[in-house]
């Protein structure tokens, strides 16, 4: 009976409405439902969301729940953003992959977590850690960071750390990988016919790395997707991964040693609902080793699932000891992230959409759009004010996973019109496309911009671009902008001018238009390859001419010291031996990185990291860039490499600029105040408080006569204390000066 009462903690359910419905309250009050999921249908504005979360928590408290509700949402950012306009727009995964900065990834996650927590949402079902290595994938695409599993792992771990450091639990998905499929599991059963060895090299790599993470970088939960894995699932062939013990138990729990909560994707997706059904699927999921089952939409399916689970408990077809372990894991998750005092408090929601988050949003979105092709140097666009500009925007067909503005391209048009008033806006679809082509609008325009959205999956968009290109080929006045997946170019490889925004949010559109009109440069890179494309590369217009490598004292010491002298030597002279001594302090777990010119092999940047406080406190001991190579991204890449290393060592619970003794600096030198903004923009708190290190050469020091004479007169001696007398000194210091004793012991 106790287990039957508690088992509701192992389900997550959703409902339709802006206030608690009778159905969801029934599950909370009468079935001990422990987790609730929100979708866009539950979210109108920040005040309403806060009322909703608080009323749900109060209902759970009144019903006698031991712990608060986990309230979850898919706020991946980009194209999956359940908060809509109730939160700050921030770049999604593939946009972050295009910027390729773990610092930016963490900042986005941290800002998102602060807004979610203010609204009462404590579990973000993110990040998506699928490797998107199939251009025809209809459901993942830009929800992935890209096609390189190492980059997906780095960016994903940074976001896990950011979310969880902000107090919001995470769920890495869709284990064991949903990237290499052309089927949407909302509508069917994707088949990934790969061996474990093949999965190990690509799909599983990001999950393995984050599972091995430490501290905040280890995910609170992992979500298993609904895909068929015929080479792994043998006991019941055809069973989806979410319902198969070979995945949850054998692979995730036993082989990868994951100890957190395992949750299924929603069982109302067709891959489960139309095969075994939601109710039977719930029992199968728990029997397979999942800790939690998600049923997001329909009350009847949710009630049926409870009934089926109760029946399975009654006839002992579910392993009760395994369920006890699942309950313990869910309880531990709640204890770590929730408390009644916090969830029922009247919290301040002013952080939602605050000025700092808006500034972060604009700064990052300006770095997102990628110019994939500009073969005829069409960009930046320069038109006379009278010249007619035609903007053709595709009618955007969406998948069930994606959130959209009511008119997705409206913000793009408005951004164009703010810069060029003589702009005509036309939405094209299969029905009106031929009328538009026959109208003469394309031929009469001085320039045509065509917006596409997953055009490689929708032939009418391809036809429009191809026909427009045929008419404008001689004029060279056509620009194509892909606002979701970057693969649209596959369908019209003849296009000369092509850029990608990775999402169709208003700030992404604004940034793309700014780039088109020359207000900002293109600095991002495609994080995926476009199959069959030979005319363009994955790089931005300015390719990097340096690489980041691990520091090798044998090969790099002389160059690194020369860089110090070139950049800092006038203010901070330091001989080579002392420079080396700081870098090799064995008690500080040193690990360093160099930025090396590809052309000359010269070191143009250097970053040094240390770890203190028994392996918990990461220290960026030094970050220096050759003055002749600054403002080219060298410092940013070194900064990322340094923090990625500290994250991998679990040394990001606390971070500091500067290091402990022996050190170069205790913080940012005052002579380098001009660089304070560099660190502030990457999340560091650069305080105005001054910290002083006293530096002097004591090798020739001798005690002044006036002091030696006084010591003789007062019978004071100065020298080594012997072990037999040391306890007396320590006891005296502990009684009167405990801080100084602890400081002495630390340095000793």
From TrEMBL:
PROSITE patterns found in the cross-reference section: GNAT (PS51186)
Gene Ontology biological process terms, A to Z: carbohydrate metabolic process; peptidoglycan turnover
Keyword Hydrolase included in the entry's annotation: yes
Keywords, in A-Z order: Glycosidase, Hydrolase
SUPFAM superfamilies linked: (Trans)glycosidases, Acyl-CoA N-acyltransferases (Nat)
UniProt GO MF annotations: acyltransferase activity, transferring groups other than amino-acyl groups; hydrolase activity, hydrolyzing O-glycosyl compounds
Keyword match Hydrolase: yes
Domain of life where this protein originates: Eukaryota
Entries under Gene3D superfamilies matching the protein: 3.40.630.30, Glycoside hydrolase family 3 C-terminal domain (3.40.50.1700), Glycoside hydrolase, family 3, N-terminal domain (3.20.20.300)
UniProt domain N-acetyltransferase: residue ranges: 546-710
Family: Belongs to the glycosyl hydrolase 3 family.
Protein name: Glycoside hydrolase
Upper classification of the organism: Eukaryota, Fungi, Fungi incertae sedis, Mucoromycota, Mucoromycotina
């Amino acid at each position: 009976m106790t287990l039957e009462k508690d088992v509701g903690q192992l389900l997550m359910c959703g409902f339709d409405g802006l206030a608690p419905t009778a159905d969801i309250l029934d599950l909370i009050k009468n079935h001990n439902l422990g987790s609730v999921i929100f979708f866009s249908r539950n979210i109108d504005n920040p005040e309403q969301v806060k009322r909703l979360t608080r009323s749900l928590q109060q209902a759970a408290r009144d019903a006698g729940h031991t712990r608060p509700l986990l309230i979850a949402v898919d706020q991946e950012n980009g194209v999956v953003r359940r908060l809509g306009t109730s939160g700050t727009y921030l770049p999604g995964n593939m946009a972050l992959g295009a910027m390729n900065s773990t610092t930016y990834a963490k900042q986005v996650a941290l800002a998102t977590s602060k807004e979610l927590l203010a609204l009462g949402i404590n579990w973000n079902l993110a990040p998506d850690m699928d490797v998107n290595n199939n251009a025809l994938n209809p459901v993942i695409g830009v929800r992935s960071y890209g096609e390189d599993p190492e980059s997906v792992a780095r960016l994903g771990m940074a976001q896990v750390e950011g979310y969880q450091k902000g107090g919001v639990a995470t769920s890495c998905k869709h284990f064991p990988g949903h990237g290499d499929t052309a089927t949407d599991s909302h509508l069917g059963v994707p088949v990934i016919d790969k061996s474990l060895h093949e999965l190990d090299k690509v799909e599983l790599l990001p999950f393995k790395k984050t599972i091995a993470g430490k501290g905040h970088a280890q995910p609170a939960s992992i979500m298993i997707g609904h895909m068929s894995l015929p080479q792994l699932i043998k006991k019941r062939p055809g069973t989806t991964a979410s319902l198969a013990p070979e995945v949850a138990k054998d692979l995730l729990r036993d082989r990868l040693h994951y100890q957190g909560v395992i949750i299924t994707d929603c069982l109302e997706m067709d891959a489960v609902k139309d095969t075994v059904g939601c109710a039977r699927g719930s029992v199968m999921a728990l029997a397979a080793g999942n800790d939690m089952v998600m049923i997001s939409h329909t009350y009847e399916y949710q009630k049926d699932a409870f009934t089926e689970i109760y029946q399975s408990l009654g006839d002992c077809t579910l392993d009760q000891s395994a369920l006890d372990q699942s309950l313990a894991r869910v309880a531990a998750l709640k204890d770590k992230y929730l408390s009644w005092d916090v969830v029922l408090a009247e919290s301040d929601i002013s952080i939602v959409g605050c000025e700092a988050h808006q500034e972060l949003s604009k700064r990052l979105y300006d770095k997102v759009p990628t110019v994939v092709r500009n073969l005829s140097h069409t960009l930046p666009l320069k038109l006379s004010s009278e010249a007619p500009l035609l903007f053709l925007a595709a009618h955007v067909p969406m998948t069930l996973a994606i959130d959209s503005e009511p008119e997705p391209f409206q913000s793009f048009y408005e951004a164009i019109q703010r810069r060029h008033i003589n702009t005509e806006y036309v939405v094209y679809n299969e029905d009106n496309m031929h009328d538009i082509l026959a109208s003469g609008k394309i031929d009469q325009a001085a320039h045509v911009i065509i917006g596409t959205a997953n055009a490689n999956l929708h032939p009418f968009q391809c036809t429009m671009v191809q026909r427009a290109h045929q008419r404008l080929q001689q004029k060279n006045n056509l620009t194509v902008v892909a606002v979701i997946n970057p693969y649209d170019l596959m369908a019209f490889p003849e296009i000369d001018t092509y850029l990608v925004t990775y999402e169709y949010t208003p700030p992404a559109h604004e940034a793309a238009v700014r780039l088109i009109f020359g207000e900002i440069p293109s600095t991002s890179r495609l994080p995926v390859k476009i199959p069959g494309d030979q005319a363009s590369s994955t790089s931005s217009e300015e390719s990097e001419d340096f690489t980041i490598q691990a520091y090798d004292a044998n090969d790099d010491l002389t160059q690194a010291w020369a860089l110090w002298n070139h950049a800092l030597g006038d203010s901070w002279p330091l001989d080579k031996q002392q420079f080396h001594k700081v870098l090799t302090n064995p008690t500080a777990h040193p690990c360093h990185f160099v930025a090396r010119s590809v052309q000359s092999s010269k070191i143009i940047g250097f970053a040094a990291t240390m770890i203190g406080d028994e392996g918990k406190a990461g220290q960026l001991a030094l970050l220096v860039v050759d003055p002749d190579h600054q403002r080219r991204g060298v410092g940013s890449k070194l900064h990322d490499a340094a923090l990625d290393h500290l994250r991998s060592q679990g040394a990001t619970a606390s971070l500091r600029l500067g290091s402990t003794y022996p050190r170069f600096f205790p913080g940012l030198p005052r002579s380098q105040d001009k660089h304070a903004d560099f660190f502030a923009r990457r999340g560091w708190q650069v305080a105005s408080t001054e910290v002083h290190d006293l530096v002097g050469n004591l090798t020739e020091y001798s005690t002044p006569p006036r002091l030696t004479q006084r010591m003789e007169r007062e019978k004071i001696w100065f020298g080594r204390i012997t072990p037999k007398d040391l306890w007396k000194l320590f006891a005296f210091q502990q009684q009167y000066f405990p801080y100084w004793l602890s400081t002495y012991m630390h340095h000793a």
